[in-house]
Amino acid sequence: MLWATFLALTAVAVAVPTSDNIPPYLQKRQGSTTMLRFGCSQVVIDRLDPLVNPGQAPSPHMHQIVGGNRFNTTMTTGDVSNGATCTTCAFSEDFSNYWTANLYFKARNGTYKRVKQGASALQFSDNFSTKTDGGILVYYVSAQPGKITAFKPGFRMLVGDPTNRKLDTKMKMQNCYRCYTGPNFGGDTAAPCSDGKLDTQALPKDICKGGIRSNVLFPTCWDGTNLDSPDHKSHIAYPTTGPAAFLSLGGSCPTTHPIRIPQLMYEVVWDTTPFNNKADWPADGSQPFYFSYGDNTGYGQHADYVFGWKGNELQKGMDASGCFGAKCKDMKNQAIEPAKKCAVSKKVNEPLDEWLTSLPGMEVPMAMA
After folding, report:
1. Could you write out the DSSP letters of every residue in 264-327?
2. What is the DSSP secondary structure assignment for residue 351, as one 8-state letter?
3. Where does the DUF1996 domain start and stop, copy by copy (predicted)?
4. Does residue 14 surpass a pLDDT of 50?
5. pLDDT band at 364, cuts 50/70/90?
6. For residues 212 and 310, what is the distance between their CA atoms, to the nearest angstrom?
7. Which terminus of the chain has a smaller tally of CB atoms within 10 A, N or C?
């Protein structure tokens, strides 16, 4: 496999797009699809949510956050790329912030332990994303007909509902989990949220020998005016013909949201392997993994996004063709070492890796679903 040359300060070894590092489901579309697929290390793990709970420290539940170091308790307006001095992402001009809830294991004795995130799947990944030691994998896809308009400075959005505990058929292609059946991610080759046998909307109910992968897909249509909305959702929409499946050529955007935006997706690999001994699971054999907001169904999975790319850097990627992974045309990259040094200080002083008697912010643990 060929790797890009190292360039001073901003360079990173990344895979040149070849059939060796492009998943099979993408190889036939090479040349007609651009998919920026890159890792971001954690910038902080903290009980903050500046989108839903601005100014609150602590917020109701714990999150893992990646991206630029301007992340703070309040980020309600403005361009977050201004004032940021570093990012944990492979593209060095991406100061956006991406965050999701944390996952915890609930042991038979009722105590909780945070589940750490693994790096991206070794197969088909670049030399940055496999070394993030946690964080998430971010996708920006330009795979729909017509022009894709990159997000604008100040843009924010939210997908999912943390209060949901029931199957929502409308979320079929927007929110899923995959149980890795063996080490090295179980030979993962199918597109995310695309396989009715491999992907589920609920957290897997049995042991996943290689861990659990979580994917969240954001809407692909924008009203063209509002950078945010009171519920952080109304200014965006999915295509009118149904959910926006990953790499879908999809239906038309509704007339209320006519502007096509990049298909944004988060991918989190939860390293559940330290908890594979069923003797440690609840005595009734029920699913033992809980998100930080008290959900052990998985239906409440949600994700937040604050756009923060510098200048027109993201638009360059969306206008390009045939770019895959963490390198595209003349877009700037960085090495993994400075990315992992980028961090913000915690605002809420709470333990992260100890065994806990309750989930952070929840003195009374949620009942089993």
Report:
1. EEEEEEE--GGG--GGGS-TT----EEETTS-SSSTT-EEEEE--B-TTHHHHHHH-SS-EET-
2. -
3. 49-309
4. no
5. very low
6. 33
7. N
